[in-house]
# Entry
Amino acid sequence: MRLYLLISLAASLALSTADAKLKVASLNTVLSDVAQNVGGDQVDVEWIIRPGIDPHAFQPSPSDIQKISTAAIVLASGKGLEGYLTKLEQSSGKTTRFIIVGDSIPSLKMAEGSASDHADHAHGEQDPHWWHSIKNVKLATNVIRDAFIAADPENAASYRANASAYQSRLDDLSKWVRHELALLPSDQRKLVTSHDAFQYFARENGFTIASIEGVSTSDQPTSRQVAELIEAVKKQGVKAIFLESAVNPKVVREITDETNARVGGELLADGLDGKRAPTYEDMIKTNVTTLMNGLK
# Structure
């Protein structure tokens, strides 16, 4: 009887150990999706920022900080997107490791002559929206894979295999994007948006880009800025202006009324959307499809 109990206890402990997962907290929806693909069944990913939440305006709550402090790894975008990051690191437990993924990704500067609707996007600063380049997300996949292996070496083979499989899917996604955009002549690859967030996409896919200052409800452009943009849209023959969900319809209407451009649709700039794009692959496909429909 005693032997049976000991065997049962040993089996129970082994099962408990096998079921233990690497706890990961993520401050970016794209990183959350990548982490789940790389980690598979070996990780438990806590989405601190959920789809549809504006990461620029986000501030972690006490319950968020508690979740982060119990995680082995915290994934952050970097490049200035999380202004609260230093305080968060200081308030977290010493055993929590912060992985600033954007530190391993080449930066682009905020475009001169354009502005964003977020005050933290000053001209010349780093553009934090690096995930609009599929190549950058492949780099992020490597960073996350290596972080998981360092924290959980027993499952290294699984993390490597998962990362390799995901990167193959990203390669397929790149091929799909190139195939879709091949139908759009280079002289039509002009992207006017309500948010200065697509420079990485533009560089990777041969677009010229400009953003409308003040199209969000949190800002208002001057009459001169609107007039200059109207003139630029006319001069460059821009077919469509692309928006985000929170827009100032008055500014958009003024620009479209004075030009031949139309509203081309709504792009996903700051991360995943629970309905339209629950995964990174969905986000890229949604944006490219919206662009093609608006610019063709």
About this structure: The first strand starts at residue 22 and ends at 26. The first helix runs from residue 2 to 19. The beta strands are 22-26, 43-47, 73-76, 97-100, 190-193, 208-211, 240-243, 262-266. DSSP finds ten helices and eight strands in the chain.
